[in-house]
Amino acid sequence: MKAAIIGGGVIGGGWAARFLLNGWDVAVFDLDPEAERKIAAVLDNARASLPQLYERSLPAEGALSFAGSVAEAVTGADWVQESVPERLDLKHGVLADIQAHSGDAIIGSSTSGFTPSQLQEGAADPSRIMVAHPFNPVYLLPLIELVPSPKTAGAAVMRAKTMLQSVGLYPLEVRAEIDAHIADRLLEAVWREALWLIKDDIATTQEIDDAIRYGFGLRWAQMGLFETYRIAGGEAGMRHFIAQFGPCLSWPWTKLMDVPELTDALAQKIADQSDAQSGHLSIRELERLRDGNLVAMLRALKARGAGAGALIRDHEDGQPLARPSSGGMIQTVDRVVPTDWADYNGHMNESRYGQVFSDAADVVLASIGADEDYVAAGFSFFTVDIHIQFKQETKVGQHIRVDSQVLEGQGKKLRLFHRMMDADGTILATGVQFLVHVSLTTRRSCAPDGDVAVRLEALAQAHASLSNPAL
Amino acid sequence: MKAAIIGGGVIGGGWAARFLLNGWDVAVFDLDPEAERKIAAVLDNARASLPQLYERSLPAEGALSFAGSVAEAVTGADWVQESVPERLDLKHGVLADIQAHSGDAIIGSSTSGFTPSQLQEGAADPSRIMVAHPFNPVYLLPLIELVPSPKTAGAAVMRAKTMLQSVGLYPLEVRAEIDAHIADRLLEAVWREALWLIKDDIATTQEIDDAIRYGFGLRWAQMGLFETYRIAGGEAGMRHFIAQFGPCLSWPWTKLMDVPELTDALAQKIADQSDAQSGHLSIRELERLRDGNLVAMLRALKARGAGAGALIRDHEDGQPLARPSSGGMIQTVDRVVPTDWADYNGHMNESRYGQVFSDAADVVLASIGADEDYVAAGFSFFTVDIHIQFKQETKVGQHIRVDSQVLEGQGKKLRLFHRMMDADGTILATGVQFLVHVSLTTRRSCAPDGDVAVRLEALAQAHASLSNPAL
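Predict the joint structure of the above. Result:
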């Protein structure tokens, strides 16, 4: 698959990174002589963060190229993303150029200010044009507001959704064309109110940020506005909440009936307060902090299957699980070490070696039919004993693989050998793990189910011919 | 310390739980005959979630009592929290009753609708009255908007801050009295805009929630509004961002100049959409989901020392570390098993046993001076080998302790024995861990620093007299 990115700023660069790290080839066109450097910076951030969201490898990174013209960039593309500055005449010109050379590619616009109908004015073929409005950083946040107009073809919208989902994005189809779509209307409301708070010296940028990140920001990251308020209504539910909270709307709380004038003095005040708050960190440092926080929170939600974490799980399910290894063993792990596995020495916490081997055992078990359904049916293998030998340090972001071998698989006993390696095959650690089959009802050991027992014995016999790893 | 909670709904119950789980005694007064049941439900949720935020035990839970009058509840209290319904005449009556019997307690009000000056009208002693506005769930979210009036004593504000911090809350002093303080002004702006989106059939409650939790909600949970936009400004910074984004404010994006009439039809529409979104779950189930998500995200931020996670770290630093155990060993771990340690069998993931022993080793190392400063100076102990025997399953929320013993401590070699037990002393697992002292500069083994070596040998000798654990 190929994506063409027209306009290579922070947003265009984020789109490029999202496609590349999901195995697409990407061609970028931007007149800015700095575009290549800027995209490289975004891509560095994306490479350092996005793969950490997954417990499996993403596809091999696609090829990045810089085109000399729109025509060159869009030729052969499946998706064309327009992210040029927010001027309608400029966008019309670029869209005409794209349509002249892009076959039947989907044409998405990153605009927050224009409706698809406005973008389609004078277009040769409006049916493939739609708004695909992303959120920064595009390589980590899944939301895309996908806004068609009545002239956009339904089939094109369907195709667009499939492609966006395939790179881990969440297309939220906006069913009506309105200025600023959905999220930016909410954002703008908050931004205006925040400007009043600063202008009136009620709060500084730091205080407003603290009021958000120590309170409702945490609620919204996992459930949003309405589900949170549904809970606030308590047992009496949403109608009760509205009855309680509704009347407050007629109180003169907000200043939003009015727009504060964005004078030079107010702009400078905000910039000064922001400098006092975050000026000791460079933008690059802030980006790394933000991305690390987002990865850690997204992984926390993923582990629970909640919020955006559920989307990451779905995307991961589409990636291949481990497969037979060349040496006759099973390749049971193939992944990147995520940030939440680091210890204070700056390398992978020693306990995570055990987790990697535990994950490897799960893959062996799944391969003999002892999977989640088997557990749901009341049986499982429990680890009784593990012996881990640590050979080398392992760092966050490092690519690791595990090959696993059955040393003993007979009746209720299972003994596994795991070898963890880096991308070059250097051994990082080994583990010998002894598991016993148990009934989850009696919590006692017992012989496995017939099918599982047969498959286990077959696997043990196949692995018996492998050389016995030196321990 | 003692807190009095006047008004025991969801908010009052959350305050009660926050104080109780931090070791305070709490007396509740509420006329609602259901108050005891409601507070018990909030407390159940709090007990299931708050202790999981910490890697150390919180103080033993305080005593909860229900008082027959305001006078009985507030007698001897250090903090009195008023959370009665938002009617000024009602609050004035309750505050007068509180002041008549509460000595020099701090009097906080959970109001979002009134200013402290309004609350203080006619008060016998306005100096101790202030707004202390919390966010639901109060037992997990750290933000408290602390709003004094000119009549509130500066010393009382200082005292209030110290007490709030001691129970893990973050008092954000609001420097000006305005309606709705800071956060609720932002929330109300979003709420109004969201009502328009629903009234105009642009989006449903589910779509608005998705637009938040898959996008900007995640950004706000860790950095808030302005630090996020500072990054969006890129290398050119905050002034550049304002120059870019500022002009949009004069566009007619929002409907906020007007308040939508909250008709019965609109209220029913919201309730119906909310039912379609979340009606398959009870409020209790939604609360557990929300709390689990908050715990997981807060722990992710805590591991990075970011956002609200930094506050939890600070609070944890005030709790005692492990101490000598009765058997002559060192009690190295004393904590609750957090949600992110669960595996799909519903008990503690086997790799976390390794983490518990790794944490235990850190405490032993800190006790001989091989602490974070020592690592910063370029030396550390690396685990070379660990042998774990799993005796019993361990569940999320379970209280665990580890006793550790030095089996060998000589030169660059350190061999530890760990015994992990539940609250009753039942052994859950044992570990024998072999560590080697290394230079972080050469990445090779070497003898420890003089002081560390001396302390290690002394500890090894002290432990040599202990019985050798059967392995």
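Chain A touches chain B through 145 residues (CB under 8 Å).
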